[in-house]
Amino acid sequence: MFTAWPFAGKGPEGKPLLQFGEKGAGLLSVVAAHPAAEFVAGGYDSGELQLAWSPDGFQLAVGNDNGDMLVVDLRR
Q1: Which one in 39, 44, 71, 74 has a CA-CA gap of 20 to 30 Å to 56?
Q2: CA nearest neighbour of 23 among 54, 47, 39, 1
Q3: DSSP structure class, residue 17
Q4: What is the pTM of this model?
């Protein structure tokens, strides 16, 4: 699970936190910020996920240590 705070305006002080992922999933080791929108994709220390956004932010590439890769199109 990872925790984030919004930094819009004067920063995160006094703003509610956001939690993502599953408790006990492991340590977050990869974070890929979206190139234009206010969200991120994350992967854990298991080594199963590596992440990258396309420059336009509509596709997310996900790969693992076995060499498998998936490109997710988010235009819907």
Answers
A1: 44
A2: 1
A3: P
A4: 0.59
